[in-house]
């Protein structure tokens, strides 16, 4: 872990910089993004850039706008009548709220793992095949291939290969959460959004997920939301600290945890609040 | 402290006495309910079951039903119930899906919901009158299985809509979020997750409604007629079991056969209800296992 941290730190300066124009290597860009639920402002004029194939951890206490950012990006907040936003939120340079954007396609491109491990009431196989099936893939051989690759990439194929037809609800919490990740990987996402994915897991399962994320960031752009500064420090990559809907500071994990620029960041990572 | 305890003793005694009185009262209420049910069912069965013979079930009535069996009425009841379910179930489930999944609470959904609730409060004789004037006369369908089924379907709709909507809303919301987040459309989410998970509840509603349709008399006598002949098509009139024993008893034709018919109807309703119960248990057991 410590061996890898230097190289992540080196890349970090380019990764998240609040100023400067968007470039092709930026996968996700927020420009003056504000999000509201009714009159409540959950995210205030956010400027944030996430480099392609990198891992960004959004860290912050409850109600700091972390989840709102994820749900605005994959437009799950379209479900809420009270949710609205202003400013720009770009995926590959195109605003995700552009009328030409196909929402289903957007959600496949920016897959999401939720806080609670929730298997669909289907078999392990059908959980992994859910997204591909909805995309219209019917061929059994093709589905088999996709399911196997997704479960392998989520580091669980060997554990479950002999009981793919058994109900996913029988898996342990940690396995269920890796299955949730496999479900997302199966639709071939470009960005993976994880909303406190380990909040319901034991320490060992948590470590496995974190390990997995460090590996996946080589081929996917990963945005991990956590309230836990220790987790942000463990997964390395870049960190953005959100507080009360504001982006307080961004930087490489190694940088932020040794020399926080803002007093609030320092207080948060040292456990004075949060 | 000491005086507190002294004063609290009779109080606690009194509340314990009141508690015991309440328990006896509610137990009595439950007993009376069971006794009433047993009396009604028992009376009909005791008077009616001896009348039921294979011939009674399989023969056509003779002399206005004074003699012979009730076979055409059994066929008519089954046909009417089946067709009304065939019409009402898709409409009712569709409405429930619309209310629960496709619309936010607004003026239109309130109108739809108010409409179904009002439909539930309308006396069945009004449905009968409407069915007679509209289907039988206006649309020229005559007294027929079709007119009767359409009228019964209108009566069944509120039950099906309400129970289906409840069952659909009971499907955990995270399933929807996961499905949408994986690029599933609303329709795909409804067909592959929501309806399968709501199926036991929906089925209960449909069968409850069917149970009511089997026993409906007022709406049917106006729309399906009271012919004693065996129906050959959807456009033929029929006399359902409840209409048959209503006429047998009211016209004083044969009390014996009226009881027999009532017993058949009662047994049929009990079978349908326990079948539904059994199916629902099996379905939900299978779902919770998987």
In short:
Helices cover 39% and strands 25% of the residues of chain A. Chain A is of the alpha/beta class and 274 residues long.
- Count of individual helical segments of chain A: 11
Order of strands across the main sheet of chain B: 1-2
CATH class label of the largest domain in chain B: Mainly Alpha
Q: Count the DSSP helices of chain B.
A: 11
Average pLDDT, all residues of chain A = 88
**What oligomeric state is this?**
heterodimer
Describe this structure in words.
- The complex is a heterodimer of chains A (274) and B (290).
- Chain A has 274 residues and is α/β, with parallel strands linked by helices.
- Chain A has helices at 2-15, 66-73, 103-109, 124-135, 140-153, 157-160, 173-185, 203-216, 229-235, 253-258, 263-269, and strands at residues 26-37, 40-51, 55-59, 83-91, 94-95, 110-113, 191-195, 221-226, 238-243, 246-252.
- Chain A has eleven helices and ten strands.
- In chain A, a hairpin with a 2-residue loop joins strand 4 and strand 5 (94-95).
- The longest helix of chain A is centred in the first third of the chain and has 14 residues, at 2-15.
- Chain B folds into two domains: 2-51; 54-289, Orthogonal Bundle (MetI-like fold), CATH 1.10.3720.10.
- The mean pLDDT of chain B is 88.
- Chains A and B meet through helix 3, helix 4 and helix 7 of A and helix 7 and helix 8 of B.
């Amino acid at each position: 872990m410590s061996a890898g941290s230097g190289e992540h730190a080196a890349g970090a300066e380019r990764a998240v910089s609040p100023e400067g124009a968007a470039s092709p290597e930026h996968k996700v860009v927020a420009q003056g993004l504000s999000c509201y639920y009714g009159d409540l402002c959950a995210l205030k004029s956010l400027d944030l850039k996430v480099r392609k194939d990198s891992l960004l951890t959004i860290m912050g206490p409850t109600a700091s706008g972390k989840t709102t950012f994820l749900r605005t990006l994959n437009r799950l907040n379209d479900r809420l009548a009270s949710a609205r936003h202003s400013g720009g939120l770009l995926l590959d340079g195109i605003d995700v709220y552009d009328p030409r954007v196909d929402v289903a396609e957007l959600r496949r491109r920016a897959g999401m793992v939720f806080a609670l491990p929730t298997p669909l009431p289907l078999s392990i196989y059908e959980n992994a095949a859910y997204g591909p099936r909805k995309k219209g893939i019917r061929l059994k051989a093709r589905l088999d291939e996709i399911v196997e690759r997704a479960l392998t990439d989520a580091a669980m194929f060997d554990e479950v290969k002999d009981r793919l037809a058994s109900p996913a609800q029988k898996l342990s919490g940690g396995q269920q959460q890796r299955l949730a990740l496999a479900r997302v990987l199966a639709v071939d996402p470009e960005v993976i959004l994880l909303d406190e994915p380990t909040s319901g897991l034991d320490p060992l399962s948590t470590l496995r997920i974190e390990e997995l994320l460090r590996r996946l960031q080589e081929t996917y752009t990963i945005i991990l939301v956590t309230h836990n500064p220790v987790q942000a420090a463990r997964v390395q990559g870049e960190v953005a600290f959100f507080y009360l809907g504001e982006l307080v500071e961004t930087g490489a994990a190694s940088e932020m945890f040794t020399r926080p620029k803002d007093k609030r960041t320092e207080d948060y990572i040292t456990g004075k609040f949060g | 402290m000491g005086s507190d305890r002294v004063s609290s003793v009779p109080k606690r005694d009194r509340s314990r006495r009141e508690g015991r009185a309440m328990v006896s009262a509610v137990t009595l209420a439950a007993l009376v309910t069971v006794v009433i049910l047993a009396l009604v069912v028992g009376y009909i069965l005791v008077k009616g079951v001896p009348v039921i013979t294979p011939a009674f079930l399989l023969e056509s009535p003779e002399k206005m039903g004074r003699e012979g069996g009730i076979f055409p009425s059994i066929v008519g009841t089954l046909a009417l119930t089946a067709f009304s379910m065939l019409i009402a179930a898709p409409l009712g489930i569709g409405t429930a899906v619309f209310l629960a999944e496709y619309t936010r609470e607004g003026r239109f959904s309130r109108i739809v919901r108010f409409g179904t609730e009002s439909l539930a409060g309308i006396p069945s004789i009004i449905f009968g009158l409407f069915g007679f004037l509209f289907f039988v006369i206006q649309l020229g369908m005559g007294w027929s299985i079709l007119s009767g089924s359409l009228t019964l379907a209108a009566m069944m709709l509120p039950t099906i809509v309400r129970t289906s909507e409840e069952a659909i809303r009971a499907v955990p919301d995270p399933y929807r979020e996961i499905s949408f987040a994986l690029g599933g459309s609303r329709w795909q989410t409804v067909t592959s997750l929501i309806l399968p998970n709501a199926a036991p509840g929906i089925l209960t509603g449909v069968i409850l409604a069917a149970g009511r349709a089997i026993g409906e008399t007022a709406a049917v006598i106006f729309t399906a007629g009271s012919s004693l002949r065996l129906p050959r098509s959807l456009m033929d009139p029929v006399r359902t079991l409840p209409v048959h024993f209503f006429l047998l008893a009211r016209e004083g034709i044969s009390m014996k056969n009226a009881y027999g018919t009532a017993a058949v109807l009662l047994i049929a309703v009990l079978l349908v209800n326990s079948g539904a119960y059994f199916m629902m248990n099996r379905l939900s057991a299978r779902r919770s296992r998987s």
